[in-house]
């Protein structure tokens, strides 16, 4: 379980996150939603241990996160140019040298499932294939936690579908958790167990997807729009 | 293909209905083996936990049976399947009547239209 307690982040006087608390239970796929600039990437970076919070704590199964905990977290950053001079194969070898839990064979199986050629330099790949190879490298790790920053953003529907299927196929819902930020709520909704909504650096809701449908008779997109609109009214 | 889901119903419920529909239609037959939870989840593009819930629900409805180490199968209890067909039909008719009545149509009018349809008019 990931436990986030009261984290805050300030850049000078500018507050990006305020008192953010939530938990990601084991075996769940949780989405992090919110508009641009709501602080989604910052939350992921803090959990991944690549950025320090100004306040609060993040625990993995009860142990405080440090840069070292990266060993147990597979983090997929929101970068388009990801090791541009490597071929897919070289990227996998590099990952193998960096992460003890990386399985070269598994990464190749994922790559095959996603139909990516591994002998092409990443900078020469199409945008869709760059997204796929990044996913294959991340899923090549047998981590307890996968943190993914906008893994589906900017791809056409076919690529997105491949990535979603890859995620379902190559993670184990009994032992692994996925926390991903996304804009594409409508397309990603069936993949998620739950959703956390960030608005201006604060958590405004955490719900289970099926609950939203059962209790509010709404899909997540409709629910989310209403929620953010009401949130803005309260603030004004 | 990933599936499109209706907005106002839980996803697991829609998948239960879909599988029941396949059984009633006959494209899934008594004794047929269903794909594994993982296979079906990947095909439909849904969370494996959701798919697990679908299979649990079907089993509780006595529509499927899980055989240890072999997988999940459509029940061979034909009585139960006949019942499922009946329940589904009644449900559809109920909701049809409900919709029609909410617009002020009477059951008499509905029957007349159905009868003229039956005569091929």
What topology emerges from the helices and strands here?
The complex is a heterodimer of chains A (236) and B (121).
Chain A: E1 2-11, E2 14-24, E3 29-33, H1 40-48, E4 55-60, E5 63-64, E6 73-76, H2 88-98, H3 104-113, H4 127-139, E7 145-149, H5 157-169, E8 177-181, H6 185-188, E9 194-199, E10 202-208, H7 209-216, H8 220-235
Parallel strand pairs in A: 3-8, 3-9, 6-7, 7-8
Antiparallel strand pairs in A: 1-2, 1-4, 4-5, 9-10
Chain B: H1 11-25, H2 37-44, H3 48-60, E1 64-67, E2 71-74, H4 78-102, H5 107-118
Antiparallel strand pairs in B: 1-2
Q: What does this protein look like?
A:
Chain B: InterPro entries: Tscrpt_reg_HTH_GntR, WH-like_DNA-bd_sf, WH_DNA-bd_sf. Chain B: This is GntR family transcriptional regulator. Chain B: It comes from Viridibacillus soli. The complex is a heterodimer of chains A (236) and B (121). Chain A contains eight helices and ten strands. Chain A has 236 residues and is of the alpha/beta class. Chain A has a single domain (2-235), classed as P-loop containing nucleotide triphosphate hydrolases (Rossmann fold), CATH 3.40.50.300. In chain A, strands 6-7-8-3-9-10 form a six-stranded mixed beta sheet, with helices on both faces. Chain A has a four-stranded antiparallel beta sheet with strand order 2-1-4-5, covered by helices on one side. The longest helix of chain A is centred in the last third of the chain and has 16 residues, at 220-235. The model of chain A has no long low-confidence stretch (mean pLDDT 90). Chain B has 121 residues and is mostly helical. Chain B has two domains: 11-76, Orthogonal Bundle (Arc Repressor Mutant, subunit A), CATH 1.10.10.10; 79-118. In chain B, 60% of the residues lie in helices and 7% in strands. Chain B contains five helices and two strands, in the order αααββαα. Chain B has a two-stranded antiparallel sheet. In chain B, helix 1 (11-25) packs across helix 3 and helix 2 (37-44) packs across helix 3. Chain B is elongated and about 55 Å long. The interface between A and B is medium-sized, with 22 and 20 residues.
